[in-house]
Specification:
2 copies of one chain form a homodimer. With 176 residues, the first copy, chain A, is mainly alpha-helical. Chain A is 69% helix and 5% strand. A two-stranded antiparallel ribbon of chain A has the order 1-2. The longest helix of chain A has 33 residues. Chain A is globular. The N and C termini of chain A lie far apart (40 Å). Chains A and B meet through helix 2 of A and helix 2 of B. Chains A, B: One of its GO terms (cellular component) is extracellular space. Chains A, B: This is Interleukin 34. Chains A, B: GO terms for molecular function: macrophage colony-stimulating factor receptor binding.
Chain lengths: 176, 176
């Protein structure tokens, strides 16, 4: 009798995962619409003083090259997405934190933070426990105290440029 | 015959100086209208990242207390005004220089720079050569290379707050 349920439960689980992926893709689409080159230029470059940099952790500068290297080490796609998500959630919160509430980039950055928050929620509901060990190490390094991690001065726009490039790399196939 | 012209020439000169003072006061009024607390707050605080500071020369932080001390040393009012003018012309150019052309404080700062340029022109036409030696020293220090002068990190709004306070101190009597 119990065995009879197995295909049905599997079917429900697959449906659930698919619905989750669709939701994830909708958030990614919203992010893409908010992270166009023009908006990054306006809100993260034109509205900041010339040569203004953010002091971020070394691990928060996540470039396409880092993802390529991790893929070569056979790190799974789910883990890479979680890494990208964790890094950029934190980066955006840091940018938001340096903006006064009446700064013209404040609302834009808050909206991005909310989208990342939604994505994290969605992600953690469905994919937790599927992380590669080396990705966990980086994520833990990020969420733990900053002490001990080397720092880097990076332009806010450069941080969002990295965010977009890696997003396209990780999602363009599964969120066509 | 030449002696007969003297009172007339003196009269013309006095008229000229009065007309110059009126023009100076009109520029001061325009500056006051552009330097209200609300505008300083908006353009120099809300539109900058939190804790953003400008690296200025020690002499560019010209406070009411500095003017009081110079007055106690019998430095004349014309010299004090020229000092205030020189310091703040340079401070505003420095703020303008860190702003991208599409930054929401760019136009505001440019307008202030223009007003200071007009005031300097007006001032130099009528008052040159009447400077106290110690004021000249400070002005020369400002316009010469920065090397050798100690530096200070100051908030842009704090620089304009000093500018306004000293302006009111120096002009409220003669530009009622």
């Amino acid at each position: 009798m119990q065995r009879g349920y197995a295909p049905f439960l599997y079917f429900v689980a697959v449906l659930g995962l698919e619905a989750a992926m669709q939701k994830e893709c909708r958030i990614i689409e919203a992010l893409q619409n908010k992270l166009t080159y023009q908006q990054r230029l306006q809100y993260m470059k034109h509205y900041f003083p010339i040569n203004y940099t953010m002091n971020v952790q070394f691990e928060e500068v996540l470039r396409v090259a880092n993802i390529t290297r991790l893929r070569d080490q056979s790190v799974g796609e789910l883990s890479l997405r979680y890494l990208w998500l964790s890094v950029n959630s934190q980066v955006l919160l840091k940018i938001w934190a340096v903006l006064p509430e009446k700064h013209p980039s404040w609302e834009y950055t808050r909206d991005l933070c909310y989208l990342f928050e939604q994505l994290t929620e969605e992600y953690e509901n469905y994919n937790q426990g599927n992380m590669d060990a080396n990705v966990w190490d980086v994520v833990e390094q990020l969420v733990s105290s900053d002490a001990g991690s080397s720092r880097k001065a990076v332009y806010p726009k450069a941080l969002l440029d990295n965010c977009v490039k890696v997003m396209l790399m990780l999602y363009s196939e599964s969120c066509k």
